[in-house]
Hints:
The complex is a heterotrimer. Chain A is an alpha/beta fold. Chain A folds into two domains: about 1-185, Rossmann fold, CATH 3.40.50; about 270-375, Rossmann fold (3-Layer(aba) Sandwich). Chain A has helices at about 10-20, 35-45, 55-70, 80-95, 125-130, 145-160, 170-175, 245-260, 260-265, 285-300, 315-325, 340-345, 365-375, and strands at about 1-10, 20-25, 50-55, 75-80, 100-105, 135-140, 165-170, 175-185, 225-230, 265-270, 275-280, 305-310, 310, 330-335, 355. A seven-stranded mixed sheet of chain A has the order 3-2-4-5-7-6-13, sandwiched between helices. A five-stranded mixed sheet of chain A has the order 10-12-11-14-15, sandwiched between helices. In chain A, strands 1-8 form a two-stranded antiparallel ribbon. In chain A, β6 (about 135-140), α6 and β7 form a beta-alpha-beta unit. Chain B has one domain (about 5-175): 3-Layer(aba) Sandwich (Pyruvate-ferredoxin Oxidoreductase, domain 3), CATH 3.40.920.10. Chain B is about 40% helix and about 20% strand. Chain B is built from six helices and six strands; from the N terminus they run βαβββαββαααα. Chain B has helices at about 15-30, 75-80, 115-120, 125-140, 145-155, 160-175; strands at about 5-10, 30-40, 45-55, 70, 90-95, 110. In chain B, α1 (about 15-30) crosses α4 (about 125-140), α1 (about 15-30) crosses α5 and α3 (about 115-120) crosses α6. The radius of gyration of chain B is 15 Å and the shape is globular. By secondary structure, chain C is an alpha/beta fold. Chain C has one domain (about 20-275): Thiamin diphosphate (ThDP)-binding fold, Pyr/PP domains (Rossmann fold, 3-Layer(aba) Sandwich). Chain C has an eight-stranded mixed sheet with strand order 2-1-3-4-8-7-10-9, with helices on both faces. Chain C starts with a helix and ends with a helix. The chains are: A alpha/beta, B alpha/beta, C alpha/beta. Chains in contact: A-B, A-C. The interface of A and C includes residues 45, 222 and 231 of A.
Amino acid sequence: MSKILLLQGNQAVVEGAIAAGVKFFGGYPITPSTEVAESLAEKLPKVGGKFIQMEDEIASMGAIIGASLTGKKVMTATSGPGFSLKQELIGYACMAEIPLVIVNVQRVGPSTGQPTSPSQGDIMQARWGTHGDHWLIALTPASVPECFDLTLRAYALSEKYRVPVILLMDEVIGHMREKIELPDNYDEIPQAERKLPTCPPEEFKAYATDESLVPAMPPFGSGYRWHVTGLVHDETGFPKGTPAATLAATNRQHDKLYNNLDDIVEVENYEMDDAEYAIVAFGGAARAAYEAVDMARAKGMKVGLVRPITIWPFAEKQMKALAGKVKHIMVHELNYGQYVLEVERAVAGKVPVTLFAKYDNEPASPAEVFAKMEEAFK
Amino acid sequence: MKKELRLSGTGGQGLILAGIILAEAALLDGKLAIQSQSYGPEARGGASKSEVIISDQAIHFPKVTNPGLLLAMSQEAAQKYSHDLTSSGILVTDSLFVKTLPAHTGKVYELPITHTAKEVLGKALFANIIALGAIVQLTGIVSEESIIKAVLNRVPKGTEEVNKKAIQLGMELVK
Amino acid sequence: MNMEEMIDKYFRPGRLPHIWCPGCGNGIVTGCIVKAVAKLDLPKDNVAVVSGIGCSSRASGYLDFNTVHSAHGRALPVATGVKLADPNLNVIVVTGDGDATAIGGNHLIHAARRNIDMTVVLYNNNIYGMTGGQYSPLTPEHSKAATAPYGTIERSFDIAELVKAAGATFVARATTFHAPMLADLIAQGIEHKGFSLIEAVTACPISFGRQNKMGGPADMIKWQRDHALPLAAFEKLSEEQKAGKFPIGVLYKAEGVKEYTEAYDELIAAAQGGK
Lengths: 378, 175, 275
């Protein structure tokens, strides 16, 4: 049985978190993501979970890292300024391979910027916000139902690959209310499971792996006493800074994700079967793009929409294939031009890539997107 | 058929809730609906708007670009949010607050929404529900049954009767 | 249990020798933590040690518990997550003066305010040792440091008073000279249900002592002997006599203050009852 509701994107994330089995949330109030914290403060205790409002954004990341070590599924939510502060421990979570989910409802920046206005300006920060070579996953929903679905998927990926997953939302999707059909109870939703060691504790090496390259992760208190560190470490988990250990750790952290791009990277195609032109857009910006494609089709233009759902890792294969299929690509994003840089790199000059950047506090309307496509694709 | 409405006024008048109720009524009618909003940093005061799009088919873009109806419950909102109202759009104002009408060549209804809330129901806070009654009566955008149900789903227990009365009062304002 | 047996039981095989300099007091403090755990006979699987970054924070890697060597200043938030998510764990936080009171200062006052059950052992060597002797918030005024070549003009925190004011319910201090007392205070801190902080005054001969002409390791430990006084004796001194001296022992203990994870369990019961 299911129920039909009118929910905000942020509320759908909360439902997704409860459905995914999240039992710990550490947060700090910030517009436009506060609804996530407020709602989980109410709902988590009802399912035996814990919500804690920490003293700052850094501390909320620290708290979810600690809670994840006890085996719990954990979440934090923030927006631009908070996302900047969280970068320190996002790096830690990459290095120590701690599963966790960070919701970032993007707003106009830099700095305090424009708290209640939509933006997609954190695309590159989501990828490169913390220092050093590192790899993680970022997913971008474009509808309220997809906020629910991608929250579940974020946990599936985070637990499977022991990696931080960023749910990279924007204010358009976070705050709009839309129809969503949810199961009456979440008991039958499959729960992502963390890999546990199969060897006895005395043989356990915390970062030893099989061919999946993902180490098992026993919870604290389970009898496997292991060491977690942000220093470069070898398979024992203890610091080891030799060139060989550094190379092995770095390569494994990369390969555990990049050997599995087919599992991780998701792209939606809309009206792409016979398309000669493509618009690439994601999240809130994709909402106008769907309608712009419909407008173009009504006028006989063979245009389709390519919507990356996984923003990071980049949809390299899909964008390269797109360059072999269409005559011209337009990237539409709510920033000065970030994702387009990756598209250009993948397309490598094979076909023209035009950017429609919108960064004035308002999403582009379908008519504006259509006008830009008409201009670019003539 | 896609219908777009913009409910605007001052933060604290309950217009975001009114938009949510209208969208939920549309779902009860078996239609699709999207509600979105924008507001300033202040929780009370300042111009705010709540937009609702209702359609039988998938709605992609969530913002109103061609309002079929603009409700303005403050002078500032009437000026700020009427820029894209065309002659086919309806302008509904709260006559207590909107003294100067924005330029508009289409239909205009100057209604004593807040005045009725205060005089008949004793509290200005029912103005948003009275406005919903008027909008439903004017546009038929959702069924009377669904708007009543949607209102009752959202209001505090014990206030059902007075809220039902508020809807009726709103409908009567434009009958 | 003699020291050798204690090392075999509580230190990880193959992780020693430690990285600390000859004459450093950190080994003594870490030994006291182990003695406290041994005294209470806590099962190793139920102990989590969370540290930050700095010399003292390296202790977590040597100890055979569930251990986290977190980021600089962040031991307390991580420890808060561990404890709140699994209140069955005994959480011990290993941190230094820079880690806990400068970059982690905000976390320190808030962890104390929540009165969450954990035991913070603050290794106070008055200096940033790992980076080569820069001044910390616990460097005494006018002391020299790599970043205070003319002596620091900043006043230092009285960390015990700070965390007491912030809401800690067990506050104590000892020195590496008073090692048995230190071990006993740490054990009391672990037994105390609430936020406990034990300041362990420890010598850094290389990065602090040398710059301030305090002599060798033995001289610095003698300095501890000569400047620390049990609280009762300290309180009998006149204000003039107190100058340069500091009290040791249990400095503050509050009973009957609700512990955070217990309060949270009540919150959950109330939320579920109110369903």
